[in-house]
Amino acid sequence: MPGKGKNRIVLAPQTRLAGVEHLAPRFFREVLGYEFTDCLITDESDLHDFAAGTFGDRNADVESMLARLEAHYLIDARAAHSTRIVDVLEFLEARGVTG
């Protein structure tokens, strides 16, 4: 039987991300240090996914990302109470960031 025993990969939704994708290229470049087009991002992607090191070090990396975000956008994204990328991008859009 074809495909028997093979695991399937199911990609998490990207529907929310599609609504704020116009903000992603600048955000990825300035905050995460990556090119958005080089990354696979879903509605479940988190800043921790882009942090290096062990879990404790990753938390420090995320704090650095949030500090860079505040420096570039003049908005404290900690008020979003989430480190999911789509939540942060929606938070930025709600505060008037357009690109």
Detailed description of the structure:
- The protein has 99 residues and is mainly α.
- The chain has one domain (15-94).
- 44% of the residues lie in helices and 0% in strands.
- The chain has helices spanning 15-20, 24-32, 55-73, 85-94.
- Helix 2 (24-32) crosses helix 3 (55-73).
- The radius of gyration is 15 Å and the shape is globular.
- The N and C termini lie far apart (49 Å).
- The mean pLDDT is 91.
Helix content: 40-55%
The number of strands is 0
Distance between the termini: 49 Å
Strand content: under 5%
Q: Which stretches are low in confidence, meaning pLDDT under 50 for 5 or more residues running? A: none
Q: In terms of topology, how is this protein built?
A:
Elements: H1 15-20, H2 24-32, H3 55-73, H4 85-94
Helix pairs in contact: 2-3
